[in-house]
Amino acid sequence: MHLKSEKGFYATIFNLTVLVAGLGYFVDTFDFFLYNSMRVVSLMEFGLSGDVLTKMGIFILNCQIGGAILGGLFWGVLGDKFGRKRGLLISILIYSIGMVINAFIQSPNSYALVRFFIGFGLAGEMGLGATLVAETIHQSKRTFALALFTVLGVLGVTAAALSIEFVNWRISCLIGGGMGLALLLLRSALFESKIYTDTAQTKLKRGSLRELFGNWRSIRNYVCCVLILVPNYFITGILLTLAPEVGKATEVQGMIKANIALAIYFTAAVVGDLLGATLSNLFKSRRLVIAIFIIGNVTLALTLLCTSHLATWQFYTFTAAFGIFNLWALDGTILVELFPTHLRATATTSGLVFSRGAVLLMNLSFLALKFIGAAHALLIIGLIVLCLGLLSVWSLPESYNRSLSA
Q1: What was the pLDDT predicted at 148?
Q2: Which candidate, 400, 406, 405, places its Cα nearest to that of 146?
């Protein structure tokens, strides 16, 4: 059943493309953030503890992010040259196989190699999925369609975090890989977007990195879109992934679990994504809402890091508050709206992944500054992230309600 009219099936946010792409994003975030949740328990199984565990855990996470950075460009270019659907099918196959292998690793070194492979495969899911959703939805419903897509994704993180409470981490890896392989069957039912197929018949050079990075306006928009999502990854990739270490540094009265912190955050992020979409439509602006969310995120982070002797429930309350200011849906929407069809998958996929890649730099900065104390190191990183994020919002053009047919 191919749907042709914007007033028909493609005009509703609950169409097959949105739901199947969203389920793919669910599996993506389950597999990507599963490591954040199982970092401590899995590395303890290999006999690591203390600072050695923290350093090895950050190294493995950086390997995963490094794979994602390479994959972001690869899958983006492939999505523009050969189609969004084809890229999604191949990427999910790669990272699903990687997750199955992850269940059987026997050393930290093999762990790092497998997470690099998984990160490479996962890099295609978020950007290509968001691009396909945006191109098959009428612009009047695009904001909420992408919010629904993102909501399904953040629920994947919640599922990953909670799975560690009920099953062994190796079983969780098998679950993630199995879900991905099963999703391949649903993916075969998707159609390529008409906007893309029309562009593919022109003489435009699709997926050209030279064109994407060949002029100042394009580079500025791209870099700004990357930087406005970095505050999100400061929260999820640093504060919550290292929640046990953060709790110790701020003398929280009780034991903090990273997987519980992530589960609470991403459950609250469902509300945050829908709130962002609602405010974006109310104010007719992406930039204003993103600026508010960045300020909210970093204000909460600085307050948390400057407050000592919190009770465990107070720490987890902060994690829920962070989720209300989740930026994923808004940033993904801006990326697909600012770039033309023949470059859209490359810009969106690589841009979203490079935002994730900022965790690598923040991790290295944290390790370099740790000698001044974990809380102080995170305060410095948080302030830098805030300034870069707000400067980027100010520099971006407004993209609200733009047509994607160009």
Answers
A1: 86
A2: 400
Domain assignment of residue 125, yes or no: yes
DSSP alpha helix (H) spans, 83-208: 84-102, 108-135, 142-166, 169-187, 194-200
Supply the CATH number for residue 72's domain.
1.20.1250.20
> Residue 96: is it exposed, middle or buried by C-beta count within 10 angstroms (0-12/13-18/19+)?
buried
Phi, psi of 403 (to 5 degrees): -75, 145
C-alpha atoms less than 13 angstroms from C-alpha of 254 in its C-beta half-sphere: 9
Residue 380 domain flag: yes
What is the per-residue pLDDT for 187?
Answer: 78
Distance (Å, rounded) from C-alpha 203 to C-alpha 205? Answer: 6
Helix (H, G, I), strand (E, B) or coil at 8: coil
Task: Please state the pTM of the whole predicted model.
Answer: 0.84
Question: How many domains is the chain built from?
Answer: 1
Q: Is the pLDDT of residue 406 over 70?
A: no
Range of the domain at 244: 17-193+212-395
Could you tell me the CA-to-CA distances from 373 to 62, 248, 249, 314 in Å, in that order? Answer: 21, 11, 8, 22
